[in-house]
Amino acid sequence: MQCSVCGKEAVINLPAYHKALCSEHFVQWYYEKTKHFTKKLTRPGDRIALAVSGGKDSIALALFFNEYRKELDVDPFLFHIDLGIPDYSKVARRYVEKLSSELGMELFVYDLKKETGKALVDLRRGSRPPCSACGIIKRYLMNKVPRELGADSLATGHNLDDQVENFFKNWTSQHFDWLAKQKPFLPGEHPKLLPKIKPLFERTEEENMAYVKYNGFELPTFRCPFSHRQRSKWRLIADEIESRNPGFKLSVVKALENFDYPVGVTGLRECSICGEPTSQDVCSFCKIIGKTTQP
Ligand code: AMP
Ligand code: FES
Ligand code: ZN
Ligand code: ZN
């Protein structure tokens, strides 16, 4: 396999784009593609919180923004939530701290145990897996903390493969309101909701891994002990269609970008305990944490 630009040995094949690239031209191609996409999601002067878990996607996000900030007038900083998960959170946090010092990019860490007295494992919702509480906690904190730190928007590392998998799940279970949220840009529908951006919406997991690797960064090998080791059936099905019809996944995310499903206004109000936006009287975060009074 030869690089479509210079003819040197290619390190990645990109059949959806009818090309293969060497490491140097791949890094350039990834940056230019992501820059073109991100320009539609950011404004000059924006202070952007980059939500970094320590996984390959969010590291690629930080590496991309490290270049983007040199070229465009934006002010990114790293935001990490330490969930206190044994054998995982400490390693992830150390990795993010190292990333911050190597890139010279500001980092804010929210330590769940220190701030609330409870780590994720203390917050199980009945017999449900910890991931159920984790999703609620992360969504809440990724909005509240960066907003209080003066961010104009929050960027996450959601990739193309995540979007395609969620598309199958949301479509077949008729969760059209969730489908409507599968967008690279979500405006804040309440003064306390930060706009959310997904700059890696069209980037595959493989591209993100390659971008980390060919930027000379170590690929993380740690993973949350609660995450599934096996790929979901939807991921396997999407991979199979992609292998027979390169570009299929890209066409799904492009359709999501252009799809406008009418969702009813959710009627957001403020939580009677913490004051954060919610559709209920007490928000899910306060319920999980067991907060009953204002701090
Ligand atoms: P996940 O829901 O784990 O697939 O993560 C989706 C995105 O949420 C990641 O790409 C990150 O941008 C963000 N994220 C997940 N976990 C954390 C964390 N512990 N701290 C900060 N951001 C996170
Ligand atoms: Fe949330 Fe694993 S990171 S349960
Ligand atoms: Zn080349
Ligand atoms: Zn609340």
The count of strands amounts to 10
Provide the helix percentage.
Answer: 40-55%
Q: What's the helix-strand series?
A: EEHEHEHEHHEHHEEHHHEEH
Into which percentage range does the β-strand content fall?
5-15%
Distance between the termini: 60 Å
Low-pLDDT runs? none
Q: Bound compounds, please? A: adenosine monophosphate, FE2/S2 (inorganic) cluster, zinc ion
By CATH, the superfamily of the largest domain comes out as: HUPs
Gyration radius, rounded = 20 Å
Mean pLDDT: 93
How many domain units? 2
Do you know the CATH topology of the largest domain? Rossmann fold
What is the CATH domain class of the largest domain?
Alpha Beta
Structural class: alpha/beta
- Which architecture of the largest domain does the CATH hierarchy give at level 2? 3-Layer(aba) Sandwich
